[in-house]
């Protein structure tokens, strides 16, 4: 887990906004906490509403997309800009089988919390010595 | 000619932006947040800000993911808008604490009593209403 996978060419960081790419995305800040039962992934997605989050798990690659709502309301003139305003994309390769059906996701205050319970078979097992 | 106070410790890193910064009405704020932010985005007390305006208001926007609205402090004092937050979390032997703040100087034309702040999806928007333009007053000659 915890390894970023297949950085797409369209991914742009805040300091190097890509030009001429149909879709510019940035990689969000994230944090992975793991224990013997589950992984917890926390992704910072400020500006993304619940409806703008898309989570896919395919071929052991977890992809998270965050689309921002309308960036700036109509009639607002920009005086100074530091925030990037780009959408987010994060792809993580899982090296442990997780229970897809029990995957939960919760978005609160711009932070997405994903809980990925491990498959029973992947949990450590204690073997009693007879 | 424009004179700007030279503060060597405030290395802005982006000269072009600074130039632009000086020209807009919020110029002259202490650029502390910029100090380390260029090297450690999001992890060095930096609180990035956007500033907009329309006909009636100025707007300042800040990204505060994971921060509850109760934990945000928005203050206006001496025409200086300060947004700050402090957070401490403890979970399973892990401890995390940080504080972020940013100050922006507010144009004189802002009505300090009518400033409003709203938190949505981790983005704080502070609305700073402009003073109503003083209409020319017609004095009747008797």
TrEMBL record, chain A:
- Residues folding into a coiled coil are none
Query: What PROSITE patterns does the entry give?
Result: SHSP
SUPFAM superfamilies for this protein: HSP20-like chaperones
Please indicate which superkingdom the organism of origin belongs to: Bacteria
> Which Gene3D superfamilies does the record cross-reference, listed alphabetically?
2.60.40.790
Q: Which residues form the SHSP domain?
A: 20-130
- Which family is this protein grouped under? Belongs to the small heat shock protein (HSP20) family.
Supply the name of the protein.
Answer: Hsp20/alpha crystallin family protein
Organism ancestry: Bacteria, Pseudomonadati, Verrucomicrobiota, Verrucomicrobiia, Verrucomicrobiales
UniProtKB/TrEMBL annotation, chain B:
Under the heading PROSITE patterns, the entry gives: SHSP (PS01031)
InterPro entries of this UniProt entry? A-crystallin/Hsp20_dom, HSP20-like_chaperone, Small_HSP
For this protein, the record's Gene3D superfamilies field holds: 2.60.40.790
Q: Name one Pfam family in it.
A: HSP20
- Domain SHSP, by residue range, is 38-142
Task: Indicate the family of this protein.
Answer: Belongs to the small heat shock protein (HSP20) family.
Name of the molecule in the record: SHSP domain-containing protein
**Species:** Prosthecobacter algae
């Amino acid at each position: 887990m915890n390894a970023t996978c297949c950085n797409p060419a369209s991914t742009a960081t805040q300091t190097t906004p890509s030009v001429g790419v149909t879709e510019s995305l940035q990689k969000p800040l994230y944090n992975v906490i793991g224990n013997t039962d589950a992984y917890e992934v926390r992704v910072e997605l400020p500006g993304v509403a619940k409806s703008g989050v898309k989570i896919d798990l395919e071929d052991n690659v977890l992809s998270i997309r965050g689309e921002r709502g309308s960036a700036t309301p109509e009639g607002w003139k920009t005086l100074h800009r530091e925030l990037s305003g780009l959408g987010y994309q994060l792809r993580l390769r899982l090296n442990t089988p997780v229970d897809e059906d029990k995957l939960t996701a919760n978005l609160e205050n711009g932070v997405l919390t994903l809980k990925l319970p491990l498959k029973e078979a992947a949990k450590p097992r204690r073997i009693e010595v007879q | 000619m424009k004179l700007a106070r030279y503060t060597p410790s405030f290395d802005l890193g982006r000269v072009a932006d600074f130039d632009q910064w000086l020209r807009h009405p919020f110029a002259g704020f202490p650029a502390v947040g910029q100090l380390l932010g260029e090297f450690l985005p999001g992890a060095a007390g930096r609180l990035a800000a956007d500033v907009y305006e329309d006909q009636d208001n100025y707007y300042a926007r800040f990204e505060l993911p994971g921060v509850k609205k109760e934990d945000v402090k928005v203050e206006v004092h001496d025409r200086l808008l300060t947004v700050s937050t402090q957070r401490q979390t403890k979970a399973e032997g892990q401890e995390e604490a940080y504080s972020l703040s940013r100050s922006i100087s507010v144009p004189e034309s802002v009505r300090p009593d009518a400033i409003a702040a709203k938190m949505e999806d981790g983005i704080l928007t502070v609305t700073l209403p402009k003073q109503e333009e003083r209409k020319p007053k017609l004095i009747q000659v008797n």
